[in-house]
Amino acid sequence: MTFQNDCIVVDGNQYKGQTWRMAMLAAMAEQQGITDPLDLIVLASGSGMTLNINPGSCSILGQDSAFPNASLQGSYFGYNVGIDNSLAPATTGASPRSDLIIARAEDPSFAGTPWSGGGPAGQIVYPRIVANVANSVTTAPSGQSAIALARVDIPANTTVITQGMITDLRNVARPMRWRTPFQFQGSTWGTPSNSPVASGPTAWPANATTTIFIPPTATFCIINFDLSNAVFTLGGSGTTSASGSLYPIIGGTPAAPVAQGPIGTYFVASTYANGTMIDVVGCSLFAIPATIRNTTQTLQMVAVGNSPNTGFITTNNQAALTLDVEFQQLASLT
Fold it and tell me: Which of 2, 40, 259, 333 has the fewest CB atoms within 10 Å of its CB?
C-alpha cells in the first residue's frame, strides 16, 4: 500500500473521510477520551429519569469490525454545545439496574455496522445508553467506537435519578502536565526551626515559602518532597520522641489552606542519637479547587507534631528541602 494522494493542504484537491480520521488519530497520539477536565459531565437533571450532559468535546478511536485495528480506521471528533438532555434511562421495577452512558461514533459509511447506510451524515457522535450492565463496568463495550462517560446505578423502584446514583467514568484523552522543581537551602531560611512538639499545623521548615502559578485547567497536583540533612535533637528530659506529619499546602495559612496534601505520618524519630541526620520524604496527591486555577498562590510545607513529643527535628544551615511539583489535567466534576 502506498502513501495516500488526498492531501488536505493542497488547494483544489479532494480528500476522503479517512484523511481527517487519520489526522485526528495522529493529533491525539492514538488516545481517546474527553478534551478538557470538565467536558461532557453527566448529571442528574432533577426531573424524573432524564440526564443532562454538559458541553464539551471528545476524541473516539474507531473500533468497527471492518478494520483490524484502530490505527487503520482513525479517530472521530465529537462535541456537545449546550446541555444535552436526550437520554433518560428506563425506570426500575423490583430489581435494581445499572446503565452505561457512552459517547459513540456511528459512521454510516462502513458496511456491517448497525448504522451503515453508505452516505454522509451531519452527526456522527451520539450520546447513548447501554442498558443493564454490571455495576462494576467502567469502559465502553468492546468492538464499539465509543468512550464511557458515566455509569448510573439505579436502585429498585426508582422513578427519579439522583446525582448519587451516577459514577463519573470520563478520562482526559491527552492530559496536560506541568512540572516545576523547587529547592530551598538551609542558608536561605534564616533562623533554624524545630518541628512542632505538639499537635497543630505549623509552617515548617520556617521561611521555606515560595509562590507558584496554577495552570488554568489543572485539576490535581502531585508533590514529591524531600527534607534532607535535618538534625534530630533530644528533649530536655533526654527521651527520644519526635514524630508527626509533614505535608504541602497551597494558598491560605497552615491552619486554613486552600488546598493541601493528605496528613500522613512522615517522620518518626524514636531511637536515634542526639545530632543524628534525618531525611523526611513523602508524596502528596490532592485536588486543585476551581477558585485558584489560573492564579498565583503560596506554596509551603506544614508540620503537625504528635503529642506528647519531647524531642524535635531541627532544620539548620545544612538542611535542604526539595519539592517536585506536577499539576495534572485530569477529569473533574468541579
Answer: 2
